[in-house]
Amino acid sequence: MITKETFIELEQKIDVYAQQKQLKTTEAQEYLDQYLQLIVDYFKQINEIEEIDFNTLDSLNVVPMNFQERYEYILARKHHFMGYRQMKTLKTELIKMNAAYQIRQKNSNLK
Question: What pTM was computed for the model?
Answer without folding.
Answer: 0.93
